[in-house]
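Entry type: protein chain
Record version: 2
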Amino acid sequence: MLLNKLLSNLSVHVKPFAICTLSEGWRLHLPGPPGLLFHFVMEGEGVLYGPHGDAHPMSPMHLAVVPIGAKHVLEASGDVVNELRIDSPPAGEQVCQITAGSNDQADLVVSCGIVSVRYGKSLNLFDHLNEVLAVDLSSVPQAMLAFQGIMAEQSRAIAGSDAMTGALMTQCLVHLFRRLPSQDEEALPWLMALQDERLARVIDLILDAPGDEYTVDSLAEIAAMSRSSFAEHFARSFGRSPMNFVNHIRMQRATQLLAVENLSIDEVARTIGYSSRSHFSRAFKEHSGLPPRDFRSESSAH
């Protein structure tokens, strides 16, 4: 099934983590993250409040996934009497510490970090996440070991640390995706949709060959569904129309090709299904905010 293929082909990048330590009665206001943010509880009890005030109780081995740009709050147990507000995400290439309260009293310890999760080079698996996603991994002892390993690897800059960190996070993601269907069917609608063989065939085809020529009619035929039923089911599951999804995957693939591959812009355009370089350049600028040439220059500068 496609879900197995997705999990077998995850592309995971983990930025340096932070350790958030809260004393009893403290509240920690955190800014909207620039990328997908993971909070994993190492010790203690508390609550994570999402941007709309939704409360998620947090205990050891609970994992919360916070969408891009979503301001949120961590609280340790007890009545709140003190607050700390962080206005911008921590920067740097090493694990940092954020302490709300006393250094000698840790009532809630949370490992926090930005994680990019893609299928191969195209599909961002949390692209449609709009609310905080909380998952209880306390029945999976490997999850704690994996996060402890991530922190250890990031605390020492040695050869292979990035690869090891990515591998450990991939383990956690597999456990997370295994838990989701039974825990919260609405959290990531695409995950449930992939259990439908008809939609799975379509997604698999688009991911494998984003440069092929597609129409809503041709995709509906592959799904063996009527055009209207297919379009409605697809949009409900993936948060965008079928052709919008195709274009999104093409632009994601172009982003990777321009940043990493040694291809001309004309070759990139043809690879993702554009016969006209000017048409591709306009579409790419609308997607990324930069023309392909400028995007490539900026990527190589970093």
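Comment: Residues 101 and 276 are 59 Å apart (CA to CA).
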